[in-house]
Automatic annotation (TrEMBL):
Transmembrane segments: none annotated. InterPro entries: 3-OHbutyrate_DH, NAD(P)-bd_dom_sf, Sc_DH/Rdtase_CS, SDR, SDR_fam. One of its GO terms (biological process) is monocarboxylic acid metabolic process. This is 3-hydroxybutyrate dehydrogenase. It comes from the Bacteria. Belongs to the short-chain dehydrogenases/reductases (SDR) family. One of its GO terms (molecular function) is 3-hydroxybutyrate dehydrogenase activity. Its EC number is 1.1.1.30. The lineage of its organism: Bacteria, Pseudomonadati, Pseudomonadota, Alphaproteobacteria, Sphingomonadales. PROSITE patterns: ADH_SHORT (PS00061).
Length: 250
């Protein structure tokens, strides 16, 4: 149902963004990929999805402008690229703060401001922001990430209001722990540093606040993104969809 629609998914060379790109592609959308990674792996993804690709570093507004100009009109904008840094506030590297705010929050302002004129003209559009359970709750040592994710939840609402009469919706998706290579890669180190088994790390550390004790699957996030593009979702805007195994119900 998305053939003829162009979808730009930021941070789509890995994890959640990749799953969202694949899910939108499966519905027929033309995909623009973005993110870092191994050149041959990215080429294989482009071939798999018949996608184009931008390697823009989204912490750089000029690179975002070049990416958006090259992409042309974007019907579906998925702001997903993000990164994390964990440190007490008094030790938090200021460069890390700036980079996380730039990537996890400011980049979405730039892509949105550049995508909106076309969406308004087309009379249809979908903006989907990957937020986080940390867009409504906090954890210690994640000051920049939590601040940026709360920020993107607010930006999503403003976009929803400004675009409400243009058939353009803006929504956030807020996962808790999603099983991505990033999360899987933390397990061996945590086993070593805390002297725990793999299962203990999964249940007692990673899934401690996730009542279902199950990771969210990237494909589940992809399926929700597809739903938000459907006509049935035309009146869903300004929402922040938790997909978190009950994390934020606590
Ligand atoms: P990931 O590390 O697997 O993917 C991140 C993507 O962003 C990659 O494609 C990477 O190349 C790209 N990227 C990184 N820096 C970039 C930059 N400067 N410019 C352009 N692209 C850049 O991570 P993920 O787990 O798939 O996370 C994706 C999004 O989901 C992030 O916004 C993250 O905060 C959010 N999220 C993840 C989880 C989780 O448990 N994995 C939970 C909640 C929210």
């Amino acid at each position: 149902f998305l053939s003829g629609k162009r979808a730009l998914v930021t941070g789509s060379t890995s994890g959640i963004g990749l799953a969202i790109a694949r899910a939108l592609r499966a519905e027929g959308a033309d995909i623009v990929l973005n993110g870092f990674g191994d050149e041959s792996e990215i080429a294989a993804l482009c071939e798999e999805m018949e996608a184009s690709y931008s390697g823009a570093d989204l912490t750089d507004p000029a690179a975002i402008e070049a990416m958006m100009a090259a992409a042309g009109g974007v019907d579906i904008l998925v702001n997903n690229a993000g990164m994390q840094h964990v440190a007490p506030v008094e030790e938090f590297p200021t460069a890390k703060w700036d980079a996380i705010i730039a990537l996890n929050l400011t980049a979405a302002f730039h892509t949105a401001r550049l995508a909106v004129p076309y969406m308004k003209k087309a009379g249809w559009g979908r903006i989907i922001n990957t937020a986080s359970a940390h867009s409504t709750t906090a954890s210690p040592f994640k000051s920049a990430y939590v601040a940026a994710k709360h920020g993107i939840a607010g930006l999503t609402k403003v976009l929803a209001l400004e675009l409400a009469e243009h058939n353009v919706t803006a929504n956030a998706i807020s996962p808790a722990y999603v099983w991505t290579p990033l999360v899987e890669g933390q397990i061996p180190d945590t086993m070593k540093s805390r002297g725990l088994t793999r299962q203990q790390v999964i249940n007692d550390v990673l899934l401690e606040r996730q009542p279902t004790k199950k990771f969210v699957k990237p494909e589940d996030v992809g399926a929700l993104a597809v739903f938000l593009c459907r006509d049935a979702a035309q009146n869903i805007t300004g929402a922040n969809y938790e997909i978190d195994g009950g994390w934020t119900a606590q």
